[in-house]
Amino acid sequence: MAARSYGQYCGITTAVELIGERWAMLIVRDLLVGPRRYTDLKQGLPRIPTNILSTRLKDLQEGGVVRRVPLKNCGLVYELTPYGRALEPIMLAIGRWGFQAMCDPSPGDAVTPDSLTMALRTAFQPEGAADADYELHVGDVALRAQVRSGELTVAQIAPPAPPVGGRMPDGEPDAVLVAGPGIRRLIGGEITPVEAIAQDIVAVVRGEESFLDSFASTFHIASFELQGAAS
Q1: How many angstroms separate the CA atoms of 69 and 31, rounded?
Q2: Residue 79 to residue 32: CA distance in whole angstroms
């Protein structure tokens, strides 16, 4: 449990005390992708000081959100407890909410494999999603996102996945997409797939360009007008 108390008897207060400290929710975000060693977490959160990472992991363990367990061929890893995994729909909802206020990235803003994985899971629309297998490249990050019968599986291609990474789908992808952070505008419906290609925001380097249409309908977050917020 975090040392700081707000002194209020309230479920929201308790939640904030558990996961509201700086970096705590990003640790939870990355552990929602899968168990991680300490070094994996540090690599995925390059700006976090090592003492803060250790402190947050200790707090999350004491709060029953995270546990440390041995894993074959990996040594000790951190993983979410069932109580911690119950945060998944909440984290996805927060991601959709935060997406509305996102603007262009600042210099130095990183896209990590775990953050991009969670972005895809946040935007995933299972109802009516066509079965397809996408390979998505954003900067130095590459993921394989496979949709089968309304279920999404994401595996990390590059950088090399942690030893506890997900299993790579069999066969070749239907389409290989190369995109910049501006793909946010496609997912948010600000531009069409045709416009995304014309503006060099996304390139379909393998497969039919029609797969970008199915990608845009499968990964979509409906936007709404934010009064006074940057677009």
Answers
A1: 13
A2: 8
First to last CA, the chain: 37
Cα separation, 55 vs 45, whole angstroms:
14
Distance CA 214, CA 222 (A): 16
User: Which DSSP string corresponds to 136-158?
Assistant: EEETTEEEEEEEETTEEEEEEEE
> Which residue do the tokens 């503006």 mark?
199
77 and 37 Cβ atoms separated by less than 8 Å: yes
Contact 90, 97 (CB under 8 A): no
Residues of the chain with pLDDT under 50: 1-2, 230-231
Q: Residue 227's pLDDT is what?
A: 52
The confidence score (pLDDT) of residue 3 equals: 57
Rounded to an integer, what distance in angstroms lies between the CA atom of residue 84 and that of residue 104?
Answer: 31
